[in-house]
């Protein structure tokens, strides 16, 4: 029994000793082993993003945090809607006011009954290829920005999602013929669209839309040249930025895609506004203008009033094609 | 109802990737998609730190705000979920997300990314809780069974915490108090506009 008592005492002593030994490092535990490690706020302040290494194959997921998506969100949900809304509604309001006050720009000399070829079949094909693609692209694109507040409440979640899905496919695939059209427009009409002295005079005199003045112009006047460069430069920008979004991570990261979306959407809404103006002048805004892209032949009086220098050139070369029977065009009006 | 959050105690994460594996297995996530990942900053250098990250289920979630078809919704537990039936795979949530959470089954071109996939906080989707359809699209719905996300449950060092924000913040605070240091709740300021004072 005595030996057992001694054993107990020994065991208790050993236990107390162990406890003491283990207490010693515990009291010195206030050392921070990761004191020198990176801190979140410090990293965010330095680079505005936190990036590291991941052991999974998808190396892009090495970006841990990038709060700048917030600024992009603000742009997409607020800024863009204002820019787009003002540009497009502003253009429509301006056109309505212009139409109600000035009305259609008439042919002052009336129709001559003789026509002259303005755009050949290939030119018209390229124009309408680009135009139809543009209209689908514009509607499907505007749907991404304005559909949720405007259309979704009207047709409901399922229908809106279904429509948006198809709109997205149309947007993505029609970008290819559209880009082709822009390239062809660039090559096809570059010759007539280099700005020159005549344009300054044309612009000073307010072009063909205001008043009864008809400043001289070659094949394309300053206004048309503006449309041309809007299509070429705007089309080039939306195509380039659009493909950056369609082919994610080919040369761009998330920030690159945010930038691409910003460029794409701003250029696109301005493009849409400009094209609404273009459509107006080409249809109800000016008598005789639509025929240029419709049948391809314009009335000689239209050509004289709006493109006098071009008409002189053409006359000098071939003369108006008055050998053709004309009533077809005249009767159609 | 609780306000569910994730908290990664970066001083404890040892980059074992158990959370990543648990998530992939639990939800049978397809190849190429990682709902959760572990990022190591300054790997192999002094000051190295690993953080496990997935969707943080943000307050006023940016993904939900920018979605063109409004396919996101927030549950009563403040978990941010989405409907794959409504998703059109446009990629906008991916541009807006601060944590790189949205994933697409096709890294594909021509904009055919497929339906977006992301961490569901083990809470499934809009389909009936625990249904086959829900499992096929979103994975398991552990929350409906009264269980917390598997990544946090599996964490070998209990670095990753999941649960009601106030409770896990309290656990973290106590840890920091006891050990005397802490690097803060990573991502909380960005996700919830608040941080844990310690």
From TrEMBL, chain B:
Domain 4Fe-4S ferredoxin-type residue range list: 4-34, 78-107
Q: Pfam families per the record? A: Fer4_6
Fetch the SUPFAM superfamilies from UniProt.
4Fe-4S ferredoxins
CDD domains according to UniProt: DMSOR_beta_like
Keywords for this protein? 4Fe-4S, Iron, Iron-sulfur, Metal-binding
- This protein's superkingdom? Bacteria
Q: Cross-referenced InterPro entries, in alphabetical order?
A: 4Fe4S_Fe-S-bd (IPR017896), 4Fe4S_Fe_S_CS (IPR017900), ET_IronSulfur_Cluster-Binding (IPR050954)
Fetch the PANTHER family from UniProt: PROTEIN NRFC (PTHR43177), PROTEIN NRFC HOMOLOG (PTHR43177:SF3)
Indicate what this protein is called per its UniProt record.
Answer: 4Fe-4S dicluster domain-containing protein
Taxonomic source organism: Bradyrhizobium agreste
